[in-house]
Queue: 3 jobs
Job 1
Amino acid sequence: MAEAKWYVVHTYSGYENKVKANIEKTIENNKHLAEQILEVRVPLQDVVEMKNGARKTVQKKMFPGYVLLNMEMNDDTWYVVRNTRGVTGFVGPGSKPVPLTEAEMKPLGIKTENVSIDFVEGDSIAVVAGVWKDTVGVVQKLDYNKQTATINVELFGRETPVEISFAEVRKL
């Protein structure tokens, strides 16, 4: 069994969510594909817009015309995705899809390896690497998707929330 990697699929503009739904429906109907196509994403970002003098936060597509897939590349999965209505092809030279690298996935908030932690909200932790090295703080929030912990640190005499990677902290 091959290793699942992230691939980018080009779609007709405005069809991103429809392509995502079509691929998910195909996976639902073909159970053997559920083990090969693990996740389908349309990356979104929050954008603040000014409309009629009011600030409004809306979600916009990070990459209009593209859908991300976490899947094992083989003839079956390639065929299913490539022949999904609205898909124009995989991103890569010719007809050969190229998986995203670790560096390309990091800004998207997609991590390939999960760091296991032994602390929970309310625990005191010490930062062992990065900008906040040798700082101690109390965990306020854990984000398992982004693999980060939000801790309060004392900065200029007041408590300030700071987001730190799980890999940079340890429990006291």
Note: The chain has two domains: 5-108, 124-171.
Job 2
Amino acid sequence: MVELMVVVAIIGLMTVVVTVSVEALLPGERLNTSIRNLASDIRSIRSEAISRGLEFRLVYDLDGNRYRWSTPFAIDKGVVRQGQGEDWEEGDRIEFPWQDLPDGVEFQSVYVAGLTYTTGEVFVSFDPLGTASDHSVIMSQPQYGTLFTIEVMPLSGLVRMHDGEFLRTEPSDGDFR
């Protein structure tokens, strides 16, 4: 009976150690997963804009810590059509469902063409040539003081990732000498 109690106690201790170890790993993985998912969606939106020859948008909801795609298509009497012309209104765009960031991960700010946004909704565009709105998204995990920046290059629309908060500075005349 004593041996059985010792075995049960050892199994209980091992369970506690394993549970604590897994909990220590999860928070960092939540931020990493969020970064990978957002970067993947940015690449997908750029690809859609190029392949369809139309402007697509990505909308960031900084208050709700979520984002979604916005297409250049509209539904007109049950038919999907490309929105354009005089009857085209911004509200006509077909928008994908919101993608929520996991618990503990949030948008700290979005930097678009020289302006920093910390609240509200902000959209960026991806055009048919593959270019994108010059923007950076700073994501944080406040509980652990972790920051990460996703930078979208304006001319190429390519994604760069940076540890911490990173904002590219404007070039000066001295940079070209």
Note: The longest helix spans residues 2-52.
Job 3
Amino acid sequence: MPTRIAFLGPEGTYGEQAAHALIDLDSLTEPVLMPCVGLRAVVDCLAACECDAAVVPVENSVEGGVTATLDALWSHPDLCIRRALVLPIRHALVSDGPLDGITEVLSHPQALAQCSGWLAKHLPEALQLPTTSTAEAARMVVGSRFRAAIASRQAGQGHDLKELAYPVNDVVGNRTRFLLLRREGRRDSGDVATLGFSLHRNAPGALLEALGCLAKHDLNMSRIESRPSKRELGEYVFFIDVDLPGDSSDPLQDLLSDLSPLCEHLAHFGAYPSTELN
């Protein structure tokens, strides 16, 4: 049976690059890639059983957490993370026109933010227009002499666009972490585990008490993100990544047991291996 894998489309996105790498790492059989419009649609596609796996970005080394992915995961706590991949991000400025004629730059909001310094220096008067993905931006500038896209080199080459500058990201070590999501197969051992939780009350020391459970079991928290609960102002949900020692599931199970009574909702997205590409 083919394995249907949803990703942020169209073809040529960094999500597609990550999907190909994760297919190899997880030995997925007969992969069929399914491009989606918007990150929420990628996760919803998996939750609705319209595909077998999904690949989404969750964190960028420059711009931080990808909020659309975090919000979608909180809406679908039954999904699990099977694997993570850290992908180097090298943006190019591509167009059918010359650099000195560019008045509009299109790209995904994260890519625009990652290149804000370069744009301020080289195209300070250009209007910056957000798109659903970097590859969609490349598609939208085809044939235009005044529009340029920030996208991968592959996306530009796929549309026969000229490469006006490369790389244009402000930070040389720009990297994005992608997740491979499934509906089943949650693990309790791996390199890292991801949890999401909301607290019973917004009171002094409530979050500190919850995070104290990690210190109690000598576990390192490698990431924490907060997102509005969307129920009322000042109420938040939290996402944490926990580094796990060895192959034993005991430390994670002990953490979950201590953390659960302190939380209104606790989502365990699983433990998983993480790989970094050069």
Note: The longest strand covers residues 263-272.
